[in-house]
TrEMBL record:
<dbReference type="InterPro" id="IPR029024">
    <property type="entry name" value="TerB-like"/>
</dbReference>
<keyword id="KW-0812">Transmembrane</keyword>
<keyword id="KW-0472">Membrane</keyword>
<feature type="transmembrane region" description="Helical">
    <location>
        <begin position="13"/>
        <end position="31"/>
    </location>
</feature>
<protein>
    <submittedName>
        <fullName>Inner membrane protein yebE</fullName>
    </submittedName>
</protein>
<dbReference type="Pfam" id="PF04391">
    <property type="entry name" value="DUF533"/>
</dbReference>
<keyword id="KW-1133">Transmembrane helix</keyword>
<dbReference type="InterPro" id="IPR007486">
    <property type="entry name" value="YebE"/>
</dbReference>
Amino acid sequence: MASKSSRKLLAKYGGGALLVGGGAVAGTVLWNKYKDRIRAAHQDEPQYGQQHTPLDRRAERLVLALVFAAKSDGHIDDSERAAIERQLREAGIEAQGRVLVEQAINQPLDPMRLAADVKNEEEALELYFLSCAAIDIDHFMERSYLQALGDALKIPQDVRDEIERDIQQEKKALPG
């Protein structure tokens, strides 16, 4: 949420889509190509990809991902907080979302815990995509956080690089 372009990109895809189906969010970013690569990285986990997280838990995890991304540079400023609240309002979960945001703010930044109950490649991609879209990677702490999140989600480095490039291209293409 660090910049105007990040906020515009999130607004372009719509808060509702972000919080109730991240797959729709990143559909324009060659989703299937990424899913296949992540599935291959989890081939030693027989249940991976065959289960899905309940929608409520998935929405909670996406809110947590937004907050963690925003505070990955060490703090959440007023504009980042306002952007998170705007996304929750657009998703129609403002009241419930505020509670989740407060809980997330008070938790230690822990990408391993965020990734712990991811059950398939689509969920892994939506977490990484949303985290990348929410920030501009202009601080070493943000880069470190995304590296740790990508590692925890077992997303191959070349896939991460492509996601980040795609998001940067989308941000540059946004008006204003």
